[in-house]
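Section 5.1 Outputs to date
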Amino acid sequence: MEGRENRRQSLRYVRHDRLFVQILTASEPQDISSRTLLCHNCDASVNGMRIELEQEVPIHSLVDLWASFEGLDEKYYLRGEVCWCYELGGECPSFQIGVELVDAFATDYRRWVELINSFSREYRPALS
């Protein structure tokens, strides 16, 4: 776990916003490709997101994200690769995934970077 902490390249902001994840390609043979899942992000940065959902998603799967922040009218279409997935346990299936965002054609990645970089100091419950 500590190794993952040391790889962080940018500040992460604690969030709990609803978003949709569409699994474009699964890296392992599972019946999840082309599925769209409603989920919540746990934190966000310029480079990625930690997302909580009820479905396991294999590492290296390619996903599209439709994200918005509570209080903002804008929506952001993003693409990324799942870099880790952990089961949280409990009565209901619950997982967290880490998604590394990529600057893909026809996405809102550059607008996303501007949004994250524009957050003021008072908004920064940042994780180190």
